[in-house]
Design brief:
Organism: Caenispirillum bisanense
Low-confidence stretches: none
Oligomer: single chain
Structural class: alpha+beta
Helix content: 10-25%
Region (Disordered): 1-20
Shape: flat
Protein name: ETC complex I subunit conserved region
CATH architecture of the domain at 1-10 and 20-33 and 44-79: 2-Layer Sandwich
Number of helices: 1
InterPro entries: NADH_UbQ_FeS_4_mit-like (IPR006885), NDUFS4-like_sf (IPR038532)
Mean pLDDT: 83
Strand content: 15-25%
Subcellular location: Membrane
Strand order of the largest sheet: 5-2-1-6
Order of helices and strands: EEEEEHE
Radius of gyration: 23 Å
Largest sheet: 4 strands, mixed
């Protein structure tokens, strides 16, 4: 049985604005067995230790060459490029962004 791996470039994390880890390529092993849930504590466990291994590469070609050298079946997920809409800094403060003007309610 051949070992399956996935090669991809991770997306930028939503928690921070940096793009540090999104430039490198990541090789991850596909799960070989389903995870099981402990009935007493509810913990999730697995006998497949390959899921813990993450290999980072500077380029997609390096990751593919490594997978071929090791004899892995690999799948490459191409990243979706982020489309940046060009706009000016003043657009952040534009009044036209508000769909309905702010109305003051008076309790009479």
């Amino acid at each position: 049985m051949a070992i399956s791996v996935r090669i991809h470039r991770p997306a930028k994390t939503a928690m921070q604005s940096g793009t540090g880890n999104s430039r490198r390529w990541l090789l991850e092993f596909e799960p070989q067995a389903a995870r099981s849930i402990d009935p007493l504590m509810g913990w999730t466990s697995s006998r497949d230790t390959r899921q813990q291994v993450k290999l980072w590469f500077a380029s997609k070609e390096e990751a593919i060459a490594y997978a071929k050298q090791q004899g892995y079946d690999y799948r490459v997920d191409e990243p979706k490029e982020r489309r940046v809409k060009p706009k000016s800094y003043a657009d952040n403060f534009a009044y036209s962004k508000v769909s309905e003007p702010y109305k003051v309610k008076h309790n009479v």
